[in-house]
Each structure stands twice: as structure tokens, then as C-alpha cells.
Amino acid sequence: MFTKILIANRGEIACRVIKTARRMGIKTVAVYSDADRDALHVEMADEAVHIGAAPAAESYLQIDKIVAACKQTGAEAVHPGYGFLSEREAFAQALKENGIVFIGPNPGAIAAMGDKIESKKAAAAANVSTVPGHLGIIEDPAHAVKISDEIGYPVMIKASAGGGGKGMRIAHSAGEVAEGFARAKSEAASSFGDDRVFVEKFIVDPRHIEIQVLGDKHGNVIYLGERECSIQRRNQKVVEEAPSPLLDEATRRKMGEQAVALAKAVNYDSAGTVEFVAGQDKSFYFLEMNTRLQVEHPVTEMITGVDLVEQMIRVAYGEKLAIRQEDVKLNGWAVESRVYAEDPTRNFLPSTGRLVTYRPPAEGPDGEATVRNDTGVFEGGEISIYYDPMIAKLVTHAPTREAAIKAQARALDAFAIDGIRHNIPFVSALMQHPRWIAGNLSTGFIAEEFPEGFALPEPKGETALRMAVIAIACDHKLNQRKRHVSAQMEGWRKVEFERTRIVALGKASFEGQVTEQGGTLTIEIGERSIAVASGWRPGEPVWQGTLDGVKVAAQVRAILNGVALGHAGAYANARVYTPREAELAALMPEKVAADTGKFLLCPMPGLVKAVSVKVGQEVKAGEPLCMVEAMKMENVLRAEKDVTIAKILAKEGDSLAVDAVIMEFA
What are the Biotin carboxylation domain coordinates in residue numbering (predicted)? Predict the structure, then answer.
């Protein structure tokens, strides 16, 4: 077995590979850019080598620097993770030429399957059903429009070397094709160093289902079930699960056998994923093959018990697969939420900055469920503008889908992050969504269920009641602490705190009575009498305990006269008053938000790539004003109404903070 391997990646996946290598007794080498000098993967590895400046094109995409780092440290093999160089034939070939083993498929398989245009040709030759489209190179926008007109709208414009939603646009008209073509080419060039794009028919109301395959260098290939990845935004997955609630055993076997046949046709010899677009009627079409480890691989590991990273390492070393197809058994259900540094209330725009608070839920058993958290960050660390916005992958596994979803919801409630915007409010709300719970999914789920965008839900029903009880419990604990403050003036009578509490929770109000006897806290609200048990202490970002014996968690942040709470997908400020305080609070005037209608504000931290207007120019609604790039995504900001440009306060190349003023309208 290898004695030392280098991980040509960063963040969560680099940490993930290091964990398995450490368990196998293999030493690890990390590589890092200027921005990642203090990153978690650098700390975890046995050795670390600096490879360049912060932009990926100057560090993680530099093949010669990776090869040099291998030679410098004596690393015998390289695991590429996902993204960056993981699907570049030239990288695998360069390692081979330097006597370094690539922990991934052979260069020929990458060439045949890693390129999306070539993979569709190979699939068609192998009689695999494919989506109608144009598989040749498209030279210019006019050519793209002509092809799209022939295919019929809507169409998908995709980067040939793409992945992770980069270099991908859906177009419903010729005008959208022309702009989408330019954006896709630009993103593809900056993210993958390859600006080729192709066009295919976009299947309406589709589901995204993929098959995990695993092959060795001796001709053996198996499949390890499927993953459903239909919950996406901007064509990037947000929530995945295994198995899929759509498939039956017969369809699963048919998709698996097609995936294996395709892998064998190109002599595939590592972990890989064959992706399909599936109709609600269980029909399916080959979409592409990812010749690498997928981001969502943990859900497959949880239901099969197979460590895919370990298998990749063993296969690369030349070992035969020890697992046969008949050995693969699917056990229970797994759900994964990708925790991103982004603001779901601003159309999921990226967020950067320092992780002032980062407290994930405890890993391990949670009743009948198991919690796993794959991450590459730490409290106090920085979320950079240069790379993918992923913070962590939270995975829960349980005997049934319902139990896995409930465990996921509990774990999300116990996940505290502060200092940046993040998508935990969205995925928490999703876990409560009736359509998600029913398994009635499609890749259009987010657009269909949140057509006006995502807003933090107001607490209702049992959720609101629980939050009110938690707010009173927190207030009671704070009052207990006040009783023990030293150097207080001695009074003629013992201080007693008001037993009645009024909780203003969003637009609702709750009245509760607090009783504590023999260490047991009871809160009476309406006709309910709820026993509360918790070890929460003031300052902790998560309240965990039981309400009438039921395990409950909530995110907690101190605010004036109460706490800000997040629980079961609902978020609200809970102001806790005595009856007299509540009377006075009702008389306070509401603060009116400032009018920002005459300004274009930067919706996320990013780099100004282009300014499309001039001072004095009249702009119609929908016309582009400027383009801001953040985390490898180009975002065109458009006029929401007819305006005249009065001032332009930012120029191309400026780095802007969120809500920075870009221009002012007359």
C-alpha cells in the first residue's frame, strides 16, 4: 500500500480524504494557496506545501506545481478530490509521466467520459438513451441560437468541462441563448480553463438521479445504488438523499446495469458517477459521467457501508475489488444537506467573511439515527471569495426516509453559525416542507415552491409554542444568574422575580407561568403545562434539551430583552417581558427602514467585472447595469425599473462588500 499521498484539493474534501488515509496508516501531504495558509486541511495533513496565490488559476489549477510538490515530499500518489484538476486528462497524464499514481480513473477513461460532449457520443454509441442535443463545438452566439431553434426551447447551455453548476445556463428564448452562451463560456474558462460549451434539450419537470459506480484495474465494475439530487439552485445541488424515493428495484437495476455497461465500455477503473435525468414516469436519459468522487458521496457510504475514498486508494494501488455486485445491500436511508456560505433570502447569493461562530451538531448516534458532518472550516476561520461557498455537508442516516429527515431537521436546529450569511434557515425549512417529505421532487422544486424567493418563515402552531417555551426557559436561566451576581445591596426582603412572562414572538404573543420545584422547571402556556429540562448556559449558541420528554434544539442568540431563535425552519426574535414591560413595549414606535430605491446595492461580497452604463444614461427595466463575480459565479445586476444613472460609485476591478452602493439613480 502507498505510504504517502498528496491531496490536490482544499477544504472539506481534502479533510475527508485525510481522515480515510489516516485510518489506513497512510501519511498525507496538503497543498495550499495564500488564502488557505491557515486552513483546516493544512493543519490536519502530515505535511503541507505552498503552491501559489489565492486565485485557483494560480495555485490549485497549476499542474506543474502539484507535480513539484509530489517530488518535494516523496508522495507516491495524488487524490484530486472533486473540482479543480479532478477531471483533467492532462493532470492524470502528467502524473503518470512523472511516475506518480493518480487516485482516479485512467486518462483514457477521463477523456472518454470526463468531457461531456465526448461522453454523450460514447453513450450514444453504447445504445444508452441520451437527451436530444447538439454534441459538436459551438463557435459563437449565432450558432448557438440556430441550434437552439432547431432543438426547441427550453434548452440547457453547458460547459463541456464543467461541473458544480458552473458554466451552465437555461434559456427559454433566442435572446437568452445569446447571453447565456457568453456567460457559460466565460465561467467555463475561469473555472476549468476550457471554454467549450454545448446545447441540449432541457427536460421539463425532471428529476436528477445518479448511479455510483466503482471499478478496478482488472475489469470488475459494480454499482452501489443511486442518489436523488433534485433539490438544486442555480443548477447546483443543495440536498441529496439515497436511495431515491422515485425508483423501484426494477428501475434501479436497469439504471445500474446501464451505468456499469457504460463504465466497462471505457475501461473505467475508479469511483465514478453516471448521472441521469429522469421523468416522473421513471423514464431516464444519460446526462453525463463525473469521473471523480462526487460531493454527495457520503449518502452512498452511509447506506452501503462502503468507504469510497478507501476503495479509490486500493484500486489505484492495483488491488482487485473485494466487493461483488451481490454483496451490495442498501441499508436504511441517508439525507445530506450542503451548508453553504450564502444568503437564501437574497436568491442564494454568496456570503464571505469570518466564521465568528461555528458549532456543528455532535457526530455519532442520535437515537436510531446517525449524524455525520464533513467539513473543512473552523470557528474563527475565513470564508474566502476565491472558492466554492461550501461550509459543511451534514448527513443523517436512519432506518427509514421519515426518520432520516427528522434526524436531519434536529441536527440542523443544533447547527450554529454566525459571522456570515448561510443557508441553514432554508434547508431547515425544507425539512418541514410537505412536498419534500412526500418525495414529490423535481429539479425545479426551489423555483416552484419559492417563486418570490425565500423568506424566513414566521413561527406557527407547535413550532411557535416550543420557541416561546425555550425563550421563557432562557430568560429564567438568565434571571437565576442575576441572583448570584456578587456585591449586590442587601434588601429587607428576598428578591423574587415575576413568575408571569409575556413572549412577543414575531407577530404572535404568548403568556407563560414559570414554576421551578426540586430542580424541575415547568412552564404553563394556555392549557399546556410543559416540563422543561436543559443544560443550556447563557452564551451558548444552541439550546438543547427536552420539552415533555421530546428532544428539541434551537439556535439562540442574545438580543435586547430576549433571544433570537431558529427552530424547525422558523426564525424570529423572541422578546420576553414582565406584564408591565409588555404594556410599555406596546407603546414604542416601530423603526422605519431607510428607502434604498434610488441606489443599486451590491447583493453580495464580490469583484466588479464590468459596468455596463454611463452617468446620464437612461436605462429600461431589465437592462444590465453591471456584473459582479463572487465564488466563481458571474452575476448580472439588472435595472428593476426604468431609471436614469445619476452617479457611478464603483469601477471595474473594485472589491465590494455586501450592500455597498454601486450606483445612484436620478
Answer: 1-451
